Amino acid sequence: MHNYRTHGVGLWVAEEKTSGRFLGRCGITPQDTGGVTEMEIGYLFARREWGKGYAAEAALACKEYGFKSLKYKKLVSIINVKNFASIRVAEKAGMKKEKTFLRAGNKMYVYSISNG
Q1: Which of 11, 60, 63, 68 is the most exposed, having the fewest neighbouring CB atoms within 10 Å of its CB?
Q2: What angle do CA 34, 35, 41 make, to 5 degrees?
Q3: In the chain, helix, strand, coil percent, each to 5?
Q4: Which spans in 9-113 are helix H?
Q5: Residue 81, φ and ψ in degrees, nearest 5
Q6: Where are the beta strands (DSSP E) in 7-73?
């Protein structure tokens, strides 16, 4: 709720349209990318839903919302270097690897895309 009060953004529930079944979460949140706060497209789906395209669909929708409605100039995704599925999702959303940094001892990539 802090992110909504402070930045007007946060994570949303993703659910199946026909049944309302919970699939996961996605949205835009401010994140530290190694000393810089940037707006991140985040996606976290239930393991049973992996490989069904929901994360890619969510990332594309968040990108469109962030650029068209919120008028952000840049969006990022922070991904553990070993999370190949999330890397593919970021690439499907048009993001490119920008940098690497350490977070809590884990090597992380920052994938990013700019609007315009």
Answers
A1: 68
A2: 60
A3: 30, 40, 30
A4: 54-64, 84-92
A5: -60, -20
A6: 11-15, 22-32, 37-45
The whole-angstrom separation of Cα 55 and Cα 43 is: 6
pTM passes above 0.85: yes
Is the model's pLDDT at 112 over the cut of 80? yes
Residue 15 contacts by C-beta under 8 Å, 6 or more apart in sequence? 21, 22, 23
Strand order from edge to edge, sheet including 74-80: 11-15, 22-32, 37-45, 74-80, 106-114, 96-103
Distance CA 104, CA 82 (A): 15
DSSP 8-state class, residue 66: I
Among all chains, which residue has been given the structure tokens 């922070």?
Answer: 78
DSSP 34: S
Ranges of H-type helices in 49-98: 54-64, 84-92
